[in-house]
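Monocyte differentiation antigen CD14
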Amino acid sequence: MDGVPWWLLLLLPLLDISAATTEPCELDSDDTHCACNFSDPQPDWSSAFQCISAVNVEIRGGGRSLEHFLKRVDIDADPRQYIDMVKALRLRRLTIGAARVPALLLFGSLRVLGYSRLKELTLEDLEVIGTTPPLPGGGPVLGLSALHLRNVSWTIGGAWLVELQRWLKPGLKVLKIAQAHSLDFSCDQVLTFSALTTLDLSDNPGLGKRGLIAALCPHKFPALQDLALRNAGIQTPNDVCSALATAGVQPHRLDLSHNSMLATAKPANPGCVWPSALNALDLSFAGLEQVPKGLPAKLSMLSLSCNRLNREPRPDELPKVGNLSLDGNPFLVSGNSNPRSTVPSGVVPACAHSPLAVGMSGTLALLQGARSFV
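Predicted structure tokens:
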């Protein structure tokens, strides 16, 4: 390993594989997907070299610390000497997971990857320790279109987004943050996500109304079209309306499915005005026994599927809606079906009375065939 370029040493511990194999890394037959799982007590890091031709690379560190790699690389070395080699990589999507990673190592790797054609980066089950290094003199280095983070903790706490954003070129379109340890951002330091169209904060059950207001930094998401808040501790749609109004966010599609909704008679803020751009709202798998008050006055699509409605909603309980979905509610199963429903007579939908109907994560929602906006 003495002759290995330093930038490859940086990337080695970040390669991630989910399948249990005899070798740490496995490359598929068409050289598209490569996955590494360095879970052995003495992993063979050199196995990662077979991933050099892959388009999609997953690297999982087996839950170990990667601090020892700092002794084997020169973080201050100029990566420009490897520009041609890095540009030649086919890498487009990279997943890094299951490790304790020094921030210096992580951001040093991002600096190298800035010369690649990487477009999607996923960080999951990571503990990022230490302070972030200074930004290179040339400014932001990484031109991503999508960034996904799941269960990532940072020594720097809530400042992590500000630090990470400094390394990203403008143009990020998709940001997904799940199981976050901190979403209380320093909004005065957060830069505007000028191109971001999709924000997914699903699977943050402790978020709630206050957390959502803290996470939606005012006027930082001018291009946002899709906002997903599945299993995010949301109690009423009106709570989200208030947060959107505070942040000045104008999504076109809003996914509030898989939250345990409260059947409040009156919304806490009855005067809240929903964004005029909003045309689709998903309230499926929310445990609703009645239609919530204070919904937008007009929608193109409203899903109330897989709830606990025992009767068909009256027109005065609903917004003016073009496409209404009520599938999987008890009133349909009991024989009081809406003649316009697509559920065949006598067929019990898979979601009816399911223990997964409340609080299901976005991943399980996809497995159940529920509609997803993101």
